[in-house]
Design a protein that fits this description.
Length: 179
């Protein structure tokens, strides 16, 4: 795993083989952040990384200047790796790492974020509920961006807050925005 840009760009980390995550590929992640660079000013952003996996997206956000990072992941091995990596990067103090179920977190959420990223397992049966819940729970601040990673078999273009989609082979990012 490599951080592709920002102040930590080029740093490599090796997650344990036991982590049950499908990290976003470097090519897709680089493409995602190229798009986001034109949409967001990362400095001081309040972010939420749901289905945190290895923490890769949160490290990229911190590397670019986001300072308030919330990450939700249920796997204890992943949580340990994320904490160790965040400590090594010197960003542990600006992270709120929550071990738990993403849907429970969303249903209890009362905070608004500037940027939310969801990289759920592609086979997640309730993946289509994610954009609905994020907007029902008002999890985005005004002008905030939500990105959902999925496969080409999912299509969110009819969602009222959908703004664009970027395809990187088997990885697709759908972008939504709070007006």
């Amino acid at each position: 795993m490599r951080i592709v840009g920002g102040s930590f760009g080029g740093r490599r980390f090796n997650p344990p083989a036991k982590i049950p995550a499908r990290p976003t590929t470097e090519v897709a992640k680089e493409g995602l952040f190229n798009v986001l660079n034109n949409m967001l000013d990362f400095e001081g952003l309040k972010t939420c990384d749901i289905f945190g996996g290895t923490g890769s997206i949160s490290y990229e956000l911190a590397s670019r200047g986001a300072t308030d990072l919330t990450l939700i992941e249920r796997d204890p091995t992943s949580i340990r790796f994320i904490k160790e990596t965040a400590k090594a990067l010197g960003i542990l103090a600006q992270m709120r790492i929550i071990q738990g179920d993403v849907f429970s977190f969303i249903k209890q959420s009362t905070e608004a974020y500037d940027f939310i990223f969801a990289g759920p397992p592609y086979a997640l049966e309730t993946i289509d509920d994610l954009p609905i819940l994020v907007f029902e729970k008002k999890m985005l601040s005004e002008g905030g961006i939500f990105v959902l990673e999925h496969t080409p078999r999912n299509d969110y273009q009819s969602h009222p807050h959908f703004i664009k989609m970027k395809n990187y082979g088997t990885t697709v990012f759908s972008f939504f925005q709070q007006p």
